[in-house]
Each structure stands twice: as C-alpha cells, then as structure tokens.
Write a structure and sequence with these properties.
Length: 56
C-alpha cells in the first residue's frame, strides 16, 4: 500500500508505476522521504492545539 503514498503525493504517477518506470526501491525511498517530511512538519508545529491529544 505504500506505493499509493508516492502517487497521492504527486511524486510519481500511476502510469509510471504501471509501466515500470519507477522501481520498488525508488518507491521505498519516496516513502521514507515522506515519513521524514511528516516528522519534520510535526516537530515544527506549535505546541498548542495542533499537537493536542497526539502522543508520539
């Protein structure tokens, strides 16, 4: 299912995946990049209501 994260983020298209223009290794790296980006965005959120109730 991680394949759809790259498609949903707009980093690759479904056609590129279906045609084999993108390798599984590239999709894994994109997924890891999206995880890192999410972690950075979370870390930079104000520590007020945006983080309320979220435990990490």
């Amino acid at each position: 299912m991680f394949i759809y994260r790259a498609i949903d983020s707009g980093m690759v298209s479904l056609t590129e995946v279906k045609n084999g223009d993108v390798t599984i290794a590239e999709l894994v790296r994109i997924s890891q990049y999206l995880d890192m980006k999410s972690d950075i965005e979370y870390a930079n959120m104000p520590k007020t209501k945006a983080r309320k109730g979220v435990k990490r």
